[in-house]
Amino acid sequence: MKKSIISIALAALAGSSVALAADYEVTITNITSGTVFTPIYVVSHKPGVTLFKLGEQASDELAELAESGSFASLDTLLKADPRVVDSADSGALLLPGEDVTVTVRAPNGKGQISLAAMMLPTNDGFIALNGVEGPRNKKSVSYRAPGYDAGSEPNDELCISIPGGGPCGGGEGASPNAGGEDYVHIHSGIHGIGDLTPSANDWRNPTASITIKRVKNNKQD
User: Fold this and answer.
1) pLDDT digit string (tens) for 50-61?
2) What structural domains and CATH numbers belong to the chain?
3) Rounded to an integer, what distance in angstroms lies between the CA atom of residue 94 and that of residue 37?
4) What is the DSSP string of 153-216?
5) What Cα–Cα distance (Å) separates residue 4 from each residue in 7, 9, 12, 15, 112?
6) Which of 45, 146, 153, 219 fits a disulfide with 205 by CB distance 3.0 to 4.6 angstroms?
7) Helix (H) or strand (E) holding 141
8) Is the link from the previous residue into 107 a cis peptide, with omega within 30 of 0?
9) How many whole angstroms separate alpha carbon 125 and alpha carbon 185?
10) Beta-carbon contacts of residue 4 (< 8 Å; ≥ 6 apart)
11) pTM of the full predicted structure?
């Protein structure tokens, strides 16, 4: 009888909401020579969550991040998904050659990490990781992120269309209403057709080096 009660108790505990979790340090290094990243949004989640799919239309929330650098709407959207565990951001611009670390919690052994930030100066360019697995056993994994294009507005390279940062000063650019490619793709870079100068503002992929390190285990309620 005692053995049966213990077995039932252990089974109940295994099926409860208490589970091991892991804290992950996500370090992003800007490896361009003339591109600035807006504050970097990092989110941890279970498998099945994606920020975008190449060749498909960007969500309104991702397009907003790619055009303005604001991740508020994207964060609200993702937090409504029960598979999302945690989110955080770097809080400041990331200049060329600099790095920053953002810490999020994720399910141990099943956690995935995604992140995104706008590239300045671009019309709707962004860097991203899209559902990569977190490391196990206190190890680290590294990734290189290319520059993506949300396809949500034309790449006119005009400061009137681009938020402040770099050569476009501190103003708020107004996004053109139409004319984008209408699907997410690898960004083709800066070509000097507007106010931007390729020698100063273009890049060659990858744009960011990203290392994810598991730092400790905790119990997650």
Assistant:
1) 999 999 999 999
2) 18-220 (2.60.40.2130)
3) 5
4) S-----GGGS-SSGGGTTS-PPPPSS-S-SS-EE-----SSSS--HHHH---S--EEEEEEEEE
5) 5, 9, 12, 17, 37
6) 146
7) strand 140-145
8) no
9) 10
10) none
11) 0.87
